[in-house]
Amino acid sequence: MLYQAGTGLLIDQLAVIDPRLAATDPAAFLRTMGDQLLAAWDEPRARRLTSVLARAVGDTHARAIAAAGQVQQEIARLFAGWMEAGRIPTGRATPTQLAWELFTASAFVRLMYLHAEASPETRRAGHRLIRTHVEFIIATAFTDAD
C-alpha cells in the first residue's frame, strides 16, 4: 500500500505528464506535476495511507500539524534573524517559506530512509540526502554561502 499510494503514485503521475512539456516549459511541467500530485494524494486511498501512518506513531493529524507548525515557526524565526542581519536577501523568500523548504524535505527523508527496517546503506543514503538538501538551502538562501 505504501508504494501504491506513496512513491509509486508519484511515478504513475510523472508518467501521465507530456514529457515534451519538460523540454519546452519547465515551469509549466512543475506546476502540472504539483497539480497531478495534489489530485492523486487527495484520493481516498492515499488519504487512508496518511491516516494509517499518523495513527502508527500515536499522533492525531491535528497534533502532528501543530508540532510541524511549531518547528516551522522556530526555524522561521532563525531565518528572519539572518535576513535582518543581511545574511539572506529579503526578496528571495519569506522566513516561513525557507523554514518549510528545509523542514519538509528532511521529514520526507526521515520517513523513507530512516525507519526501523532500513539497512545501513539505506540509512547512509538518507543522511546524504539530508546533508545535500541542507547545502542546497544554504547555497540558495544565503548571500555568503561557504
Give me the Rg, rounded. Answer: 18 Å
Q: For the residues shown, what is the average pLDDT?
A: 83
Number of domains: 2
Largest sheet, if any? none
Shape: globular
According to DSSP, the number of beta strands is: 0
Structural class: mainly alpha
Poorly predicted runs of 5 or more residues: none
Helix count equals: 8
Topology order in helix (H) and strand (E) letters:
HHHHHHHH
Q: Beta-sheet strand percentage?
A: under 5%
Instruction: Indicate the percent of residues in helices.
Output: over 70%
Distance between the termini: 42 Å
In short:
α6 crosses α7 (95-113). With 146 residues, this protein is an all-alpha fold.
Write up this protein.
Helix content is 77%, strand content 0%. By secondary structure, it is mainly α. It folds into two domains: 1-58, no CATH class; 60-146. The chain is globular and about 45 Å long. The protein starts with a helix and ends in a 5-residue tail after the last helix.
